[in-house]
Amino acid sequence: MINKRALLTFSIAAASLLTFSISNHSVPQAHAATTLTYGKITNNSLHRLGTIRQLTRAQLAEDHKLSGKQVQNLIYLPLPKRLTAHNFTLSKTALTIHLVKNSYGVKDVAIPLSKLTGIILNCYMPSQYDFVKPKTPKKVVALTFDDGPDPTLTPKLLKTLKHYNVHATFFEVGSSVIRYPSISRLVLKYGNQIGNHSWNHPDLTTLSSAKAIHQIALTDAAIYKATGTIPTYIRPPYGAVNSRIGNLFDRPIVRWNVDSRDWAYLNTPKTVSHVLATTHPGSIILMHDIHPTSVAAVPQIIRSLKKRGYTFVTLPTLMQKPLLANLQYFGRGDFRGF
């Protein structure tokens, strides 16, 4: 005969075990949702956290019509710098940053998850936003142009790029953007990207941090006024950057590994020859859209590289991942901190 007292004890124990099992499956999930930190969702990456800070600034500017002074002051918006911070809510559609009191009067900024693919870990994202390394041909190259916009040469270059179905990144000088805002709008209209190349092309490493920030902030404001967007990338004039400057802006620093030397040659055949001789798979090519000889060299460069099997791609496609804040990018597989 079964011992009733033993059976009762076993039943209570079994029920308790079942309750613990159910609780152990559900409660930690709810608990985890309330204790997510930037460290958890970014795999403890300060570069990803910096990228989220800049995305917050850019999204605030996109959502609210800002004055030039307000755009310039975005760099001073109080945003988290510690990976242990948790002033956000992560939903199925957005990462909402909960701001402390600020001069913009904005309490929350919701960044669409589509802008965070590859920045937030896949395990915290709905599957449609999972980062998958893009498959590209082995021989890829990215074109970049500095020092514009120019009212005559930049539109001519844009038509050339469109003819060959090539997109590029234009690192623009703020003092020229203010003079020719319609050209900056045209750059984006043709499917290209705009980066920040300072206000009037100084060596940023020779400036105080405040003055260097002012150079970039003024240009952000000029590009925002012209296009309604904040540039994602920064290229310091002359490629002059150090750890002090490189860590000021919460943005990728885009360098290059092929200098066309078009600025020195001012000669179309020599520029073409130099680019073709030095380009290799994964190159970022530096050129300028303010010299007639440079713009004249582009058709032959594109045709020749395509004949050699190269595909022209944008910077994220070249790097096969999002470009992150406070890192320097020289070419495919070549990115460095400070």
From TrEMBL:
GO terms for biological process: xylan catabolic process. InterPro entries: Glyco_hydro/deAcase_b/a-brl, NODB_dom, Polysacc_deacetylase_ArnD. Residues 1-32 form the signal peptide. GO terms for cellular component: membrane. Keywords: Carbohydrate metabolism, Glycosidase, Hydrolase, Metal-binding, Polysaccharide degradation, Signal, Xylan degradation. GO terms for molecular function: hydrolase activity, acting on carbon-nitrogen (but not peptide) bonds; hydrolase activity, acting on glycosyl bonds; metal ion binding. PROSITE patterns: NODB. Pfam families: Polysacc_deac_1 (PF01522). Residues 139-313 form the NodB homology domain. PANTHER family: CHITIN DEACETYLASE 1-RELATED, GLYCOSYL TRANSFERASE-RELATED. This is Xylanase/chitin deacetylase. It comes from Lentilactobacillus buchneri subsp. silagei CD034. The lineage of its organism: Bacteria, Bacillati, Bacillota, Bacilli, Lactobacillales.
